[in-house]
Structures are given as C-alpha cells and as structure tokens.
Amino acid sequence: MARYGKTALAAALMVVPAAAVMADPPPPPPYQMRAAAPAGDRLAAGRDGRALFENHCGYCHLTFGMGTNLLVKQRLAVGASPATALLANRDDLTAAYVHAIVRMGKGAMPPQTRVDVTDRELDSIAAWLGRGK
Ligand code: HEC
C-alpha cells in the first residue's frame, strides 16, 4: 500500500507540471492593468490630472491597489470612512502635500522620480487631487 502511494505521488508530480506548462496563463485582473498613458507632451503644463493619476498612480491607488489597501487601515485608524482610502475621494489633500509625498515617498510608497512622473505631470495630478487647494 505504501509502495502504491509512492508510485501515485511520483506520477502526480510528473503530471502536474506538464499540465501547468500546457495551459495558457489567465490574463491579469483588470485592476492590475495599468491605465494607458494619456497622449501629449510629458513636459507640458495643464494636462488631464485624472488621466495622468490613473496612469502613473492608479496601479497602487485605484481599487485593489496596494496603496489603497494600506490606506484603508490608516483611514479607519483615524476614524475616517474607508472610502477615503481612494485618494480621489479625499477632500483634505493639498497640491503641496501631494508634491512632497510623491517626490519623497511615505512608508511603503516609493519616491517617484522625475522620470516616473515629470514635474509638469505632477503639477497636473496634484492640482486634480488637491481640488485646487
Ligand atoms: C508602488 C505603489 C505606489 C505608487 C506608484 C504611488 N503610491 Fe502613493 N502611496 C502608496 C502607499 C503604499 C501609500 C501609503 C504609505 C504609507 O503610509 O505606508 C501611499 C500614500 C500616498 C499619499 C499619502 C496619503 C495620506 O493619507 O497621507 C499620497 C498623497 C499619495 N500616495 C499620492 C500618490 C500619487 C499622486 C502617486 C502618483 C504620482 C502615487 N501616490 C503613486 C503607494 C504608491
């Protein structure tokens, strides 16, 4: 019986990797797909802050992003609604605060360089997130 069990295990170990190689991998879920970069000059001022945010920050700060997930815990800890873990739902952010966090990073958020996000792109994003503040 023990001998049969070992044979079955060995057979299973040979079959499983072969099946894994043959099957097509599933596509990533939509929330892991980075939003397309908006067209236009990356060094130009006054572009669509929301579109730039979704492209540059969305893979962490849209629904299911790791930034959103971590901020849920922080927002609950200060008695705020978990919906405010989505930066787009915040009404307390200022452009200056967004600039500082993006360039310096915070906790688990890595600093974003001027190659990641140009100064003019960051101006547009910060103006949109800060709602003019
Ligand atoms: C690699 C993932 C990642 C990217 C990309 C990212 N962030 Fe973050 N962000 C985080 C995480 C995680 C936190 C929470 C940090 C902590 O406190 O530990 C955070 C926090 C923040 C905060 C602070 C919120 C608060 O309540 O203090 C702001 C503002 C912010 N991010 C803006 C941005 C903007 C704007 C961009 C795009 C230019 C961006 N982030 C890109 C992961 C990311």
Structural features, described:
The protein is an all-alpha fold. It has a single domain (27-129), classed as Cytochrome Bc1 Complex, Chain D, domain 2 (Orthogonal Bundle). It contains six helices and no strands. The model has no long low-confidence stretch (mean pLDDT 89). The protein binds heme C. Heme C binds next to helix 3, helix 4, helix 5 and helix 6. Heme C (HEC) is lined by residues 56-57, 60-61, 66-67, 70-71, 87, 93, 98, 101-102, 106-110, 112, 117, 125, 129.
Give the arrangement of secondary structure elements.
Elements lengths: L1 H21 L26 H8 L1 H4 L4 H12 L17 H10 L14 H11 L4
Helix pairs in contact: 2-6, 5-6
This protein binds heme C.
Structure summarized in a few sentences:
The protein is mostly helical and 133 residues long.
